[in-house]
Amino acid sequence: MGARLPQSRSGRVGDLAKLPAGRLGGHLETLTVLIPRSGSHRQALAIAAGETAALVGWAAYDVGDPDTARHHYKTAAPAGREAGHPAVVALAMGRDHRL
Q1: How far is the CA of 41 from the CAs of 36, 47, 48, 49, 75, in angstroms?
Q2: N or C terminus of the chain: which is more exposed, having fewer CB within 10 Å?
């Protein structure tokens, strides 16, 4: 027997799946606020922001919201470019291309 996904009170799995996306979005907002005044930590925070934006995009896609997913993938790529981190750029562009 396979594992069963937990369901919300409404009986829909999607309701619970949206919780991590919201929390990740809050994390991304915090990173975005910190980057301009991060000094020597700017590159590390830009990488974290790019990776987080890609993860938020993935979570949005997972709950059936491709428009939000695309928005976050298009946010992740510039963050990766700013940080000089081609892996983040490739991740975001690859995921966006699959939509």
Answers
A1: 10, 10, 11, 12, 19
A2: N
Q: Name the domain count of the chain.
A: 1
Domain membership of residue 2 (yes or no) is no
Residue 3 in any domain: the answer is no
pLDDT in tens, 8-39: 444 455 555 566 767 888 889 999 999 999 99
Residue 20 is part of which domain span? 13-97
> Could you report the per-residue pLDDT of 49-70, keeping only the tens digit for each?
999 999 989 888 888 889 999 9
Between CA 79 and CA 46 the distance in angstroms is 5
